[in-house]
Amino acid sequence: MGKKRVAQRAKPAYSAPKQMMAALEKLRNKPVIITFHSLGDTDAVASALALAAELGPKAVIAPADRTNSESRRLMSWEMKKFISFETARAKFPDAKIILLDANDPSILPQFGGRAAACRPFILIDHHSVSRASVRAKTEWVEPESSSACELVADLIIHPSSEQARWLILGILSDSAHLMRADANTFAALSRLIPLSSQSYEQLLNELRHPNNATCRAAVLEGLRQCTWKLQGERLLASAIVSSHESHVADALISAGADVAVAGTSDKKGARISARVRASLADEMDLPAIMRETGRALGGMGGGHPGAAGASGPRGERLEDAIGLALRLCAKVKV
Ligand SMILES: [Mn+2]
């Protein structure tokens, strides 16, 4: 012990490519549409806000559709300036499009289909690309990175206190409060934290805000309704609930399930949320499993490797669709 000294500072695993810096520099004060994936999360919204502030007042943020509840709670005031993607395209037909935090076409309805009317000019993402991905002229894709915010932080030389706040929130949210983080993540935070007007503890507490009582009641109900089976070493859990199925699926994973599928149905149809434990997420194609589950509901599905969902009008098929999802998850050998 003690013989080996760390002689030099470890180099960062990656840093912003020069061509991306140059491409963004050219877009400064030009009309730009910044967009991100369906059901935009804190990372997507925060990275868009920080980048828009960097590019100037002609940069508009146009989400794919709704944003999620955490991002609305943390940044609802900033979201008042968001406009729909269709409106942005109609108002600024010549604006270059920047896509953040996604490249999977199943969660990018604004670039939907082969006959898509537009393509992004720039892509900045931390999800790996596949043959089906939505691609851009200039790309920076870093699958090892915790978040889109971590990458955008690297593209902003002098972040304001507001930009620092957004980027810290995005990094903390997408890294599951630093459970999925590396040296680059901590380097980005150590640079941003002194610039924010709030302390790290204050920002972390904003993220840890408990859900409302109705949501927590639905989670408790979900735990009561839960059924599970042990398959080898793998615990698969499911529940049918009256609402808040995504929170129920999260709670089932926190309670120890390796795979959790929670669903709800009403007059309009059925919705299913599926989660897998982080260490299983790479081995299982959960978005593909949810696409097939969505078809069983007469609708569609997709999402992220660890968190995905399906929905469709055939609410009466909810139980069968949950059974199908569990069978497809159980089939995957680990
Ligand atoms: Mn992200």
Q: What can you tell me about this protein's structure?
A:
There is one protein chain. Helices cover 39% and strands 18% of the residues. The strands form two sheets. It has a six-stranded mixed beta sheet with strand order 6-7-8-9-11-10, with helices on both faces. A five-stranded parallel beta sheet has the order 2-1-3-4-5, with helices on both faces. The chain has twelve helices and eleven strands. By secondary structure, the protein is an alpha/beta fold. Helix 5 (148-155) packs antiparallel against helix 6. Helix 2 (42-55) links the parallel strand 1 and strand 2 (59-61). It folds into two domains: 18-207, Alpha-Beta Complex (inorganic pyrophosphatase (n-terminal core)), CATH 3.90.1640.10; 213-331, Diaminopimelate Epimerase, Chain A, domain 1, CATH 3.10.310. Manganese (II) ion is lined by residues 43, 101, 126, 147-148, 174. Manganese (II) ion binds at residues 43, 101, 126, 147-148, 174.
Q: Count the beta strands.
A: 11
How much strand?
Answer: 15-25%
SSE string, helices as H and strands as E: HEHEHHEEEHHHHHEEHEEHEEH
CATH superfamily of the largest domain: inorganic pyrophosphatase (n-terminal core)
Q: Can you describe this structure in just a few lines?
A:
The protein is 39% helix and 18% strand. It is built from twelve helices and eleven strands. It has helices at residues 18-27, 42-55, 69-79, 85-91, 148-155, 161-174, 183-192, 200-207, 213-225, 245-254, 286-296, 318-331; strands at 32-36, 59-61, 96-100, 122-125, 138-141, 227-231, 234-240, 259-266, 269-276, 300-303, 307-312.
